[in-house]
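Me: I keep going back and forth on a fold encoding question. No explanation is needed for now; the record alone will do.

Assistant:
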Amino acid sequence: MRARDVMTTSVISASPEMSVQETAKLLVEHSISAVPVIDADGKLIGIVSEGDLVHRVEIGTHARRRSWWLELLASSRELASEYVKEHAQTVNDLMTVDVVTVAEDTPLSEVAELLERHRIKRVPVVDNGKMAGLVSRADLVRALASDTHDKRKSFAHADVEIREAILNAMSGQRWALTRGQIIVRNGKVHLWGVIFSEEERKAVCVAAQTVPGVRQVISHLVYPLTLPSM
């Protein structure tokens, strides 16, 4: 699956001329935690999140507590940036401009990795610089929960195709069954072989369970025999 398959296309956005107070109201009214900033040409130029609105002079949260040595280490650039965040009146001055984005055809695995790596909750989807949609962590969870994306409900494959798909799923994995056998009969998968940990057993079973057409996975996997010490 790709970003276009799960993204939200009806995205609430802000303009760079919008006031900070109007933007805060937008977040509250629509129960969202961030808004992309779109210019007159429909291009994404920034994003404003709840985090950008936490330290504000209007509500008395602008004074940041730092130890004296952190205060000394803070650069003039950092202090100036904080002042702008605390006192800016328009979105143009407040927004984060270095926005992490993805394309419509970006695989969901890459989207999830970006969200995790940058510790963000959502990522804009752009097409030639213009906003096409938004993928959030919630969208990924919905995709997982949706029956329409349940691989197990796909058309049943022939046993030989199921076996081949399981082997492909394990291909290149260090925990793959190298000394074992996979037998498939009427969609039931029998796994025979030697494993060296419970984690390996689970990984092999999951590799089989996620193949379309598999009705049941029966594990006959065993640990290697250990000879008594002499």
Remarks:
- The chain has two domains: 3-145, 152-222.
- The radius of gyration is 26 Å.
